[in-house]
Fold this protein.
Amino acid sequence: MPGETRKPLNVLFLCTGNSARSIMAEAIMNRLGGGKFTAVSAGSAPKGAVHPLTIEILKRNNFLTEDFRSKSWEEFAGDGAPQFNFAFTVCDNAADEACPIWPGQPMTAHWGVPDPASATGNPAEIALAFAETWRMLYNRISLFVNLPLASIDRLSLQKRLDEIGKATDSSKPAS
């Protein structure tokens, strides 16, 4: 119906430490989702603080950083938690862990990207690892937010979500 307002779809990004990748994904989704999505992030063993280079990349991309924090996925598994439409793991460890049952029985996919927080080398090489993680997440989330969610069946959507997780470049998901 014209003028009908839809509730945003809730998206959960999961990683073990919730200090870099999942925080970046949360930020990107909330920006690119244009009000159609509301994203949060969490970890199975949160570090307790957002990585300083994650804060730096968020600031460089014009995000206010005060509201980002490292948090446990338990915060989103209990009573009163949002009903999730989608839950994405962005690290291999979280993908292999036994996750809680998420409210809303969300569609899930693994969108693993390398952990920039474990990058080694000189400061420029480590900064490059953070920039590359940002780029990969930005590209995957761009593909996701442009899916025709209203006109795609659940099985086809699951296939597309899995393909996006295998995307290696900025233009197309892997086939």
